[in-house]
């Protein structure tokens, strides 16, 4: 069909002129955990797809379907040696171009749970560079209708839709970005036969109208669903048993002496034919040999030779001019991500609302424990303890941000693989949205604790106190983000965050003076410990210019002022090595530490690309 005759909502699907997708010699090897020997997961697989075609990748469990799909989609596979070539329009293309013209849907659903169904598609569309307006809204509405999600459009993904509905939303989300090639890993998992057929039918119709290439792994499709595909790639133990048109499957197997019953589901028959999962004992040796022979027969078949010729001819096709389509600018991406993150922030109770309640309760608790401290020497150590607890516990409680950020991280990994945005935009949007909340947390804690505890009654000291706590919380959240970047799962990130906070608390120079810290802790942690600088800043807000009475009998526990029964706050600061002239420098150091955490997290995320 002429692109100009397409509906407006579908024209954007032609944002890249993909005519062919071909692959040859794709092989994936990993080291066997038991024997230590190389183990082949995908063995010399080849094939070619034309624009508008849909291919089903089938095979028994563990045959290499998902591994093959990940390699074909150029997604990284850990601890694997990958060889072979992948061509788009007969040429190898740079990874950034490949990411732009392709989209990948995993076998498990990844969403931001606080967004509703329509918002999920809307933000995916905007991040893909589709301008806001009637075209974008029409496309979203078309996909909602095509996948039976119209009645769910205002429901939140996290609690309002079923697994099967999430599967449909996953496919729709990849389509809304307008790819030229779509990879789907088990798109019908969790769907009944009717829903599966409807989803595949829509994919087929869309592919025919727009030239979209669809490659998806699928497990045990019904006869009606199976017949909707144009091509089949049948794998067993990583080896190809068939690649070609669906309507030639019966003839091919008849040519090698295998008859597919007329009334049987071809998909079920083929899966049973190449399945060796239940043929592991000695009596099953003939069955395994039969499956190996089927793979060998494919290797010498005329259809396989024909495919090889088509693949070779496609490689000499002149490379088409790439029209990468419009992508939002970096400020544009940042604006969209910030908007999405902001919506999540006020809807996700665990991310910020519950934490606000927690910090407020902590302020009330601390304020009532250190209730109205007197301005005498008996309160000096109490006040120091209160400052230490305020600084350290506020940092410790930032660990509650781990679950919310892990959800953001998983969404980022998926979007990054699909070329929507990078680590810099992701972390910057998170930082921008988080700052107002960190200030709110600091203020909520301070309003209760500061005045209940009887801290220094000065507006300047109060707002300086809040500023130090604000920096402390930003640094603590940076620790959380770095921990997730190091180990991106809940338990691992929790352990790393807790460990770093404990080390920071112990090496801040308050429990053990810096002069007594060993070389490892002094140079490894003390000098870049934000808690230590924040504690010293908070000490300065309370003791600079303050005096404390020595009480009856003038028995001063600290050096007193000349001819007075009062202790100068500067005396306390001197004992802790705190100089007022250093406070501006300390602010700069804390800001540098905050940036250091974010830059380190950015570097780790980039390393995983």
Explained architecture:
Helices cover 53% and strands 12% of the residues. With 609 residues, the protein is of the alpha/beta class. Strand 6, helix 7 (193-210) and strand 7 (213-217) form a beta-alpha-beta unit. Helix 15 packs antiparallel against helix 21 (530-543) and helix 18 (459-486) packs across helix 19. It starts with 7 loop residues before the first helix and ends with a helix.
Note the overall shape.
Answer: elongated
What is the makeup of the main sheet? 6 strands, mixed
Percent of sequence in beta strands: 5-15%
- Note the quaternary state here: single chain
The stretches of 5 or more residues where confidence is low (pLDDT under 50) are 1-16
Distance between the termini: 37 Å
Label the structural class: alpha/beta
Radius of gyration: 31 Å
How many domains, as an integer? Answer: 2
Q: DSSP helix count?
A: 23
In round numbers, the mean pLDDT is 87
Q: List how many beta strands DSSP finds.
A: 11
Provide the helix percentage: 40-55%
Strand order of the largest sheet: 5-6-7-3-8-9
Transmembrane segments: 350-371, 383-406, 426-453, 465-487, 493-512, 587-605
Main location: membrane
Keywords: ATP-binding, Hydrolase, Membrane, Nucleotide-binding, Transmembrane, Transmembrane helix, Transport
Protein name: P-loop containing nucleoside triphosphate hydrolase protein
């Amino acid at each position: 069909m002429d692109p100009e005759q397409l509906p407006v909502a579908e024209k954007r699907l032609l944002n890249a002129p993909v005519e062919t997708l071909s692959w040859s010699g794709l092989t994936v090897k990993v080291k066997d955990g038991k024997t230590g020997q190389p183990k082949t997961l995908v063995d010399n697989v080849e094939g070619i797809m034309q624009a508008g075609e849909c291919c089903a990748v089938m095979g028994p469990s563990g045959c290499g379907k998902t591994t093959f799909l990940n390699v074909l989609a150029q997604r990284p596979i850990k601890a694997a040696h990958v060889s072979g070539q992948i061509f788009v329009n007969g040429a190898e293309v740079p990874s950034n171009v490949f990411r732009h013209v392709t989209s990948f849907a995993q076998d498990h659903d990844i969403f931001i749970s606080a967004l509703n169904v329509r918002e999920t598609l809307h933000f995916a569309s905007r991040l893909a560079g589709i301008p806001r307006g009637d075209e974008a809204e029409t496309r979203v509405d078309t996909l909602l209708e095509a996948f039976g999600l119209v009645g769910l459009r205002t429901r939140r993904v996290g609690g309002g839709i079923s697994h099967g509905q999430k599967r449909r939303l996953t496919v729709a989300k990849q389509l809304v970005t307008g790819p030229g090639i779509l990879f789907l890993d088990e798109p019908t998992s969790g769907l009944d036969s009717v829903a599966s057929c409807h989803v595949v039918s829509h994919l087929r119709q869309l592919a025919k109208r727009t030239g979209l290439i669809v490659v998806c792994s699928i497990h045990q499709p019904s006869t009606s669903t199976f017949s909707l595909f144009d091509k089949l790639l049948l794998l067993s133990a990583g080896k190809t048993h068939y690649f070609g048109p669906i309507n030639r499957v019966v003839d091919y197997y008849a040519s090698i002496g295998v008859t597919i019953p007329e009334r049987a589901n071809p998909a079920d028959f083929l899966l049973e034919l190449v399945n060796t999962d239940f043929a592991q004992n000695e009596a099953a040796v003939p069955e395994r040999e039969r499956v190996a022979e089927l793979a060998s027969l494919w290797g010498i078949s005329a259809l396989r030779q024909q495919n090889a010729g088509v693949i070779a001819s496609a490689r000499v096709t002149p490379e088409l001019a790439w029209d990468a389509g419009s992508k939002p600018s970096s400020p544009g991406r940042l604006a969209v991500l910030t908007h999405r993150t902001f919506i999540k922030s006020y809807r996700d109770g665990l991310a910020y609302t519950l934490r606000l309640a927690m910090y407020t309760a902590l302020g009330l608790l601390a304020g009532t424990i250190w209730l109205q401290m007197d301005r005498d020497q008996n309160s000096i150590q109490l006040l120091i303890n209160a400052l230490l607890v305020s600084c350290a516990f506020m940092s410790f409680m930032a660990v509650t941000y781990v679950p919310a950020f892990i959800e953001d991280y998983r969404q980022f990994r998926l979007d990054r693989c699909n070329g929507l945005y990078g680590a810099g935009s992701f972390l910057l949007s998170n930082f921008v949205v988080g700052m107002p909340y960190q200030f709110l947390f600091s203020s909520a804690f301070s309003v209760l604790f500061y005045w209940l505890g009887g801290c220094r009654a000065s507006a300047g000291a109060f707002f300086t106190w809040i500023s130090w706590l604000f920096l402390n919380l930003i640094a603590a959240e940076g620790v959380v983000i770095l921990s997730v970047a190091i180990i991106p799962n809940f338990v691992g990130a929790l352990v790393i965050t807790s460990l770093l906070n404990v080390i920071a608390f112990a090496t801040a120079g308050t429990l053990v003076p810096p002069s007594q810290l060993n070389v490892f802790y002094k140079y490894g942690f003390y000098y870049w410990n934000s808690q230590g600088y924040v504690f010293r800043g908070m000490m300065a807000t309370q003791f600079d210019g303050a005096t404390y009475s020595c009480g009856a009998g003038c028995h001063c526990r600290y050096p007193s002022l000349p001819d007075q029964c009062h202790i100068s706050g500067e005396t306390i600061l001197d004992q802790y090595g705190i100089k007022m002239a250093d406070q501006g420098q300390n602010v700069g150091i804390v800001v540098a530490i905050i940036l250091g955490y974010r830059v380190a997290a950015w570097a780790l995320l980039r390393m995983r690309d």
